[in-house]
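Query form — protein Nucleoid-associated protein MB09_03010

QUESTION: What is the three-dimensional structure of this chain?
INPUT:
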Amino acid sequence: MFGDLMGMMGKLKETQEKVEATKRRLDTVMIDESSSDGLLKITLTANRQIKTIEIGDALLEDKEQLEDYLILTLNKAIEKATNVHETEVAAVAKEGMPNIPGLDMFK
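ANSWER: The C-alpha coordinates for Nucleoid-associated protein MB09_03010 are given below.
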Protein backbone atom coordinates (compact mmCIF):
# COMPACT_ATOMS: atom_id res chain seq x y z
CA MET A 1 0.00 0.00 0.00
CA PHE A 2 2.71 2.49 0.97
CA GLY A 3 4.70 1.58 -2.13
CA ASP A 4 1.76 2.59 -4.29
CA LEU A 5 1.35 5.79 -2.32
CA MET A 6 5.05 6.63 -2.62
CA GLY A 7 4.92 5.85 -6.34
CA MET A 8 1.93 8.17 -6.78
CA MET A 9 3.62 10.93 -4.80
CA GLY A 10 6.73 10.60 -6.95
CA LYS A 11 4.64 10.74 -10.11
CA LEU A 12 2.80 13.82 -8.84
CA LYS A 13 6.11 15.55 -8.08
CA GLU A 14 7.39 14.65 -11.54
CA THR A 15 4.20 15.99 -13.11
CA GLN A 16 4.49 19.21 -11.13
CA GLU A 17 8.05 19.66 -12.41
CA LYS A 18 6.87 19.04 -15.98
CA VAL A 19 4.08 21.60 -15.57
CA GLU A 20 6.59 24.18 -14.30
CA ALA A 21 8.92 23.42 -17.24
CA THR A 22 5.99 23.84 -19.62
CA LYS A 23 5.15 27.21 -18.08
CA ARG A 24 8.77 28.32 -18.55
CA ARG A 25 8.68 27.13 -22.17
CA LEU A 26 5.48 29.13 -22.75
CA ASP A 27 7.52 32.28 -22.08
CA THR A 28 9.08 31.63 -25.49
CA VAL A 29 5.81 30.98 -27.35
CA MET A 30 4.72 34.23 -28.98
CA ILE A 31 1.13 35.11 -29.83
CA ASP A 32 0.57 37.81 -32.45
CA GLU A 33 -2.68 39.71 -32.80
CA SER A 34 -3.58 42.63 -35.05
CA SER A 35 -6.55 44.89 -35.48
CA SER A 36 -8.59 44.11 -38.58
CA ASP A 37 -7.03 47.03 -40.48
CA GLY A 38 -3.49 46.34 -39.23
CA LEU A 39 -3.12 49.68 -37.45
CA LEU A 40 -2.41 47.98 -34.13
CA LYS A 41 -0.21 44.92 -33.63
CA ILE A 42 0.40 43.21 -30.31
CA THR A 43 2.75 40.36 -29.41
CA LEU A 44 2.60 38.56 -26.09
CA THR A 45 3.83 35.29 -24.66
CA ALA A 46 1.58 32.31 -24.02
CA ASN A 47 2.06 33.26 -20.34
CA ARG A 48 0.26 36.52 -21.19
CA GLN A 49 3.23 38.88 -20.89
CA ILE A 50 3.08 41.72 -23.41
CA LYS A 51 6.26 41.90 -25.50
CA THR A 52 5.50 44.49 -28.18
CA ILE A 53 2.82 46.95 -29.21
CA GLU A 54 2.99 48.62 -32.62
CA ILE A 55 0.65 51.56 -33.20
CA GLY A 56 -0.01 53.00 -36.65
CA ASP A 57 0.34 56.77 -36.97
CA ALA A 58 -3.35 57.19 -37.86
CA LEU A 59 -4.34 55.89 -34.41
CA LEU A 60 -2.16 58.45 -32.65
CA GLU A 61 -4.46 61.20 -33.83
CA ASP A 62 -7.57 59.84 -32.08
CA LYS A 63 -7.14 58.93 -28.42
CA GLU A 64 -10.59 57.34 -28.08
CA GLN A 65 -10.10 55.18 -31.17
CA LEU A 66 -6.66 54.08 -29.93
CA GLU A 67 -8.13 53.10 -26.57
CA ASP A 68 -10.87 51.06 -28.29
CA TYR A 69 -8.33 49.33 -30.53
CA LEU A 70 -6.11 48.51 -27.54
CA ILE A 71 -8.99 47.01 -25.58
CA LEU A 72 -10.28 44.89 -28.47
CA THR A 73 -6.90 43.71 -29.71
CA LEU A 74 -5.44 43.04 -26.26
CA ASN A 75 -8.50 41.03 -25.27
CA LYS A 76 -8.25 38.90 -28.43
CA ALA A 77 -4.52 38.34 -27.86
CA ILE A 78 -5.01 37.45 -24.19
CA GLU A 79 -7.78 35.01 -25.11
CA LYS A 80 -5.52 33.28 -27.65
CA ALA A 81 -2.62 33.15 -25.18
CA THR A 82 -4.86 31.78 -22.44
CA ASN A 83 -6.13 29.03 -24.74
CA VAL A 84 -2.57 27.99 -25.66
CA HIS A 85 -1.46 28.16 -22.01
CA GLU A 86 -4.37 26.13 -20.66
CA THR A 87 -4.14 23.52 -23.41
CA GLU A 88 -0.41 22.98 -22.93
CA VAL A 89 -0.49 22.86 -19.12
CA ALA A 90 -3.58 20.61 -19.07
CA ALA A 91 -1.95 18.16 -21.48
CA VAL A 92 1.12 17.82 -19.26
CA ALA A 93 -0.97 17.57 -16.09
CA LYS A 94 -3.29 14.94 -17.60
CA GLU A 95 -0.34 12.88 -18.81
CA GLY A 96 1.13 12.67 -15.33
CA MET A 97 -1.98 12.07 -13.26
CA PRO A 98 -2.01 8.74 -11.45
CA ASN A 99 -4.94 6.43 -12.08
CA ILE A 100 -7.04 7.01 -8.97
CA PRO A 101 -10.49 5.40 -9.11
CA GLY A 102 -13.24 8.01 -9.10
CA LEU A 103 -10.91 10.82 -10.17
CA ASP A 104 -11.41 10.65 -13.90
CA MET A 105 -12.11 14.35 -14.34
CA PHE A 106 -8.92 14.81 -16.36
CA LYS A 107 -9.81 12.18 -18.95
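ADDITIONAL NOTE: The chain has two helices and three strands.
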